[in-house]
Amino acid sequence: MHQLPIVFPNAFVKKSNDFIRSKLTIKDTLAGRMLAIAASVIQTGDVDFYAYKISTDAFFINDRNKGGSQYEQIKKATDDLAQANMFKKTGKNSFVRYPIFYKIAYESGFIEITFHPEAKPFFLDLKEHFTKYNLIEFLMLRSVYSQRLFEVLKSWESISEVCI
Q1: Residue 91 half-sphere exposure, CB side, CA atoms within 13 Å?
Q2: pLDDT in tens, 76-85
Q3: Which of 35, 40, 95, 164 qualifies as a FRET site for 51, CA 20 to 30 Å off?
């Protein structure tokens, strides 16, 4: 099991452009943070996913009111992630939905996240057509819309002009 420290200087998130530019069903800002932090733990040489254990303090890095509702916020975000999937159109009348997570568990201030094996092409062994960005920059975003916009724009960063 890989455990992410609460402080993550120089941590980067790396996702395939197919994943970033697809339709994602994540609707919760905290769920977006959980996904980004879990993705940042994946090492370049990893050939398989592990169970990643993350302190819940990491998810609230930019929130002013961390108070008593933290447990309910985490529960809501994990509900969102448990149902999260990636939708990819594969033809005129065909598509694929990929689950993102296999398991999400909470205990004593830690979330344990395991990616679904079907998500391997979007997070593991990425050599081309991927986006890499600073985790701290992402965690400072305050809405699910700014998170999505940030990732989509980052995925086109190397192109001088694009029409989306």
Answers
A1: 2
A2: 999 999 999 9
A3: 95
